Amino acid sequence: MTADNLQMQGFPARALYIDLPQQPTGGFDYWPVDLAALFERPSFRADVIRQVRPAVGSAARVGFPAVLGLYDAARVQAVLADALGAPVFEITTLPPSVPGMRLYHALRARLLNWARSSRWGRRRHTA
């Protein structure tokens, strides 16, 4: 759908389907969070790179669904871009939103860190 929309706007784009590993639970499809966890595994990234690299050609950039890691997305994106030889970007997906979860975890970590270094309540004075 995304590639079709880009083509209608005059951008050269095409979709690529890749094979995913068999789900350990035997289910029939992956949720975005499941895929984000898989992208954090070097072996999964290597398999994706192996499947995508032949199709990249002279592409100006490569888009993936917004599932490129939950905790280390910047690193996942950098590894893919380096291996594919083109900038990598994420395309929004249906909920649950992995980028939203990333933002939640980052904000939560900052707030917890701030709370540890801050004092809450009134100061107690001793005379």
- The helix fraction, in percent, is 40-55%
Q: In DSSP terms, counting alpha (H) and pi (I) runs of 4 or more, how many helices? A: 5
Number of strands: 2
Biggest beta sheet summary: 2 strands, parallel
Following the backbone from N to C, one meets helices and strands in this order, namely HHHEHEH
* Estimated structural class: mainly alpha
Whole-number count of domains = 1
Query: Which strands sit side by side, in order, in the main sheet?
Result: 1-2
Radius of gyration: 20 Å
Low-confidence stretches: none
Explain what this protein looks like in three dimensions.
There is one protein chain. With 127 residues, the protein is mainly α. The chain has one domain. It is built from five helices and two strands, in the order H-H-H-E-H-E-H. Strands 1-2 form a two-stranded parallel ribbon. Strand 1, helix 4 and strand 2 (88-91) form a beta-alpha-beta unit. Helix 3 packs parallel to helix 4. The longest helix is centred in the last third of the chain and has 19 residues, at 98-116. The protein is elongated, with a radius of gyration of 20 Å. It starts with a helix and ends in an 11-residue tail after the last helix. The mean pLDDT is 86.
